[in-house]
Amino acid sequence: MKDKILVTGGTGYIGSHTVVELQNSGYEVVIVDNLSNSRADVVDNIAKVSGIRPAFEALDCLDYEGLDALFTKYKGIKGIIHFAASKAVGESVQKPLLYYRNNLVSLINLLELMPKHGVEGIIFSSSCTVYGQPDILPVTEEAPIKVAESPYGNTKQINEEIIRDYIKSGAPINAILLRYFNPIGAHPTALLGELPNGVPQNLIPFLTQTAIGIREKLSVFGDDYNTPDGSCIRDYINVVDLAKAHVVAMDRIMKQKQEEKVEVFNIGTGRGLSVLELIHAFEESTGVKLNYQIVGRRAGDIEQVWANPDRANNVLGWKAESTIEDTLRSAWAWQKKLREDGIQ
Ligand code: NAD
Ligand code: WQD
Fold first, then answer.
1. Which residue's CA lies nearest to atom 34 of ligand 2?
2. Which CATH number applies to 4-184+237-267: 3.40.50.720, 3.40.50.300, 3.40.1170.60, 2.60.120.380?
């Protein structure tokens, strides 16, 4: 058995997949989640997939005393993967203080408790949103950080800075910042996936909900961008591939292999796909025809962004492996499972 790891937000979309991969690789996992954007029965499905039931505490990361007690209860936690956060870009514009409080204070609580409880390292869920519209593509980790488009994006930038400043001050911890591109897809068993809250804002849940008939049609936000087909380009990363990146990053922290006390990695495929290309790939890989129409641009959208994942490939030894077809089929299987289970 490897070390004991605390996964905050571990019943969420990326967290649940990561818990399974950590368990598959021999780590013992403790999940903390306040269930604000996930369900407690995700723990049952994690257990079905991995064969191991992780410890689970329904707790808010804003609760400093609660977290303190948790580290005492599960003595010997050596690493943290911190997923817990509010993540809806539009909502963050409406409710900035909720986002600043939840996303900043949760991290500060964890950082403050790490030395006290002998926790050596933390992996933080950052985002390609910190690059805004990069000047050079594919974007590397050295690209300048651009002014954030939303309070949500700003919390990612500030959290990166908080971690850097804390470590610079001499805190006895190490950190890895993983900048995810666009995570999509679901577990191949269709037991884990994304549970969108209300009307989905992200492309894939809206697309699969349209395909199954919950939504009448998918709007493509703009076909007049400066891209080959005029629609926006993103780097869509399979969620299981993304989950595996956390395992190798945690191995690196636990084996004290880091060259710097704070390291940052892009987690993407290195390939940009347009919205229209993605729609066609979905139709071809699932055989399902999509009702879509081109509408105007969405405010705040970046025209095009995709990763240069060389550092993650070379230093972490991690590479995105899934094909886009398999990933889209997994998203579709998940949508059908939600219907079967009467969830959506
Ligand atoms: P998610 O909402 O599915 O998971 C987050 C989990 O954290 C949820 O289960 C929620 O209940 C929990 N949570 C929120 N606030 C909490 C708190 N104060 N205390 C305890 N639990 C709390 O989101 P996700 O897509 O899995 O994202 C995970 C992380 O990755 C987030 O930090 C997000 O900002 C980041 N990220 C996501 C994307 C994406 O497109 N999904 C892209 C880049 C970065
Ligand atoms: C993808 C593309 C849309 C919906 C957001 C956050 C980012 C990160 C990931 C966390 C864009 C187009 C979408 C629709 C469409 N999250 N689209 N019709 O905007 O790249 O990134 O999620 O850090 O911070 O901003 O993802 O899935 O919303 O959009 O045409 O109904 O699909 O314009 O080009 P985005 P998305």
1. 232
2. 3.40.50.720
